[in-house]
């Protein structure tokens, strides 16, 4: 159990399971993009850990860039996505893999994909560590999913509760009373 701010969390997905699944995703992506030199675009802040570990599993030439959007406050999505900040790479004709830590409503992914598509990439696929199918209202399910999870509030491994918990090696879920 851990306490962050005013909430108690219990273990949910352990680091070994996370790293094993990321290794599998890295092998799949390396095979599917073997001759394409993909550009990974990681959405900060949450995806920094999954991005770093996924890059270590890639066995093909690839690049990574980071962007920032904001759609969360506290434990719920605001439904608003700010503009894309930080993409300084020309993506015209490139194969893009958008990296997320978690996709729940899909609002952020839809907005980022739309913003990226305007720049003329060859393709845009999405890859997420966690996917909440019951909360999803987006246009397209992520192409690569680490774990499908129920509608729980989770922290750790890059995910936060008001900026705390990102540094945890495991993923924790909010403890039910």
Description of the molecule:
The chain is α/β, with parallel strands linked by helices and 177 residues long. The protein has a single domain (15-151), classed as Rossmann fold, CATH 3.40.50.2020. The protein contains three helices and eleven strands. A five-stranded parallel beta sheet has the order 4-3-7-8-9, sandwiched between helices. Strand 1 and strand 2 form a beta hairpin. The longest helix is centred in the first third of the chain and has 18 residues, at 15-32.
Strand order of the largest sheet: 4-3-7-8-9
Share of helix among residues? Answer: 10-25%
Assembly classification: single chain
Distance separating the two termini = 13 Å
CATH architecture: 3-Layer(aba) Sandwich
Give the number of domains: 1
Low-confidence stretches: none
User: What is the gyration radius calculated from CA atoms?
Assistant: 16 Å
Number of strands: 11
The CATH class is Alpha Beta
Largest sheet: 5 strands, parallel
Shape: globular
Mean pLDDT: 92
Following the backbone from N to C, one meets helices and strands in this order, namely EEHEHEEEEHEEEE
Strand content: 25-35%
- Coarse structural class: alpha/beta
- Helix segment tally: 3
Return the CATH topology: Rossmann fold
Give the gist of this structure.
With 177 residues, the chain is of the alpha/beta class. The chain has helices spanning 15-32, 48-57, 107-117, and strands at 2-4, 7-13, 39-44, 63-68, 72-73, 76-77, 95-103, 123-131, 144-148, 154-155, 171-174.
Characteristics:
22% helix, single chain, alpha/beta, globular, four-stranded antiparallel beta sheet
């Amino acid at each position: 159990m851990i306490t962050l701010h005013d909430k108690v969390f219990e273990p949910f997905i352990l680091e070994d399971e996370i790293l094993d699944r990321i290794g599998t995703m890295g092998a799949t992506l390396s095979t599917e993009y073997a001759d394409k030199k993909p550009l990974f675009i990681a959405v900060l802040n949450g995806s920094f850990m999954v991005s770093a570990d996924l890059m270590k599993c890639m066995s093909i030439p690839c690049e990574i860039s980071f962007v920032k959007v904001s759609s969360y406050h506290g434990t719920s999505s605001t439904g608003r996505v700010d503009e894309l900040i930080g993409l300084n790479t020309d993506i015209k004709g490139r194969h893009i893999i958008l990296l997320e830590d978690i996709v729940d409503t899909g609002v952020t992914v839809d907005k980022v994909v739309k913003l990226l598509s305007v720049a003329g990439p060859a393709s845009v696929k999405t890859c997420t560590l966690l996917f909440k199918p019951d909360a999803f209202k987006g246009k397209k399910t992520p192409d690569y999913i680490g774990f499908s999870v129920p509608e729980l509030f989770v922290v750790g491994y890059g995910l936060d509760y008001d900026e705390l918990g990102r540094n945890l090696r495991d993923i924790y879920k909010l403890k039910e009373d």
